[in-house]
Amino acid sequence: MLLIPAGVLLLLSIPFSCATASPGILEVDLSFPRNGSIYKPVSLIPVVFSVKGQALASLAEASIGWSVRSDVNSSLFNVGTIDLKTPNNSLPEDPYFVSSYLSIQAGIEGSWLFDWVVDYSRCSPKDGSVLREAYDSSFRFTTSNGAQPPTLETAGTSCDNAQNFAVNVTAVATSRSRDPNDPNYCAVLGENPTASLCAANVNASSAAVLNAAIHRTACVEGRVNCTKADLSSAMSFSSQQSLLWVITALGAISALVL
Length: 258
Fold this sequence. Notes:
The chain has 4 helices and 10 strands; from the N terminus they run H-E-E-E-H-E-E-E-E-E-E-E-H-H. The chain is an alpha+beta fold. The strands form 2 sheets. The protein has a 5-stranded antiparallel beta sheet with strand order 6-3-1-9-10. A hairpin with a 6-residue loop joins strand 7 (110-123) and strand 8. The relative contact order is 0.23.
């Protein structure tokens, strides 16, 4: 179990007062699986998003949801969520990658519909209350036993079929919402920016790190066979990640709040 000092928890629980953030772009790009691609059906198919603006993702309370269903009969196979405020399977870098996996039984061929959504909050331009909004997208990919196994390396890939989401966070303001469940702060958004991370580079070394992170998650969740040593190592790594993201969040708060 990760033990976070009480003082750290107190700082994280302090709501933002009226504050101003430097202009910044929050961007989420789907890196894998790829639109229109064909993969060999294996037990763990990576799900990877590239994210720019972790501090802004936290301010906007952003999260990613995704699902995979059969393109033939719409049967749901997998669902997943990734909290971008304190994401798993990533180190506090910017831009950074967050990862999960989908599990289609090995050897199963078919056409699949991948739906994904970014949920986030913003200040209402009318009354300063908190608005909940969402961006959603979808695409198809195929599994075939004659295809190559999935690979995360992106060298030489283009942005032609890239899918992404981006907002321009210009400031942070005190929320005027009367709903007690709403936060005391919200992100002020400007005009929609142009996305820029569609060609985020994943080299062989980065791909190996992401694959290891995905295997650790599958190990903890009992999706793959692993030894007690593997399980202990995976849980220890997750705790270290959580502490790093707490430290990063504190730094973001001190930098953004006046």
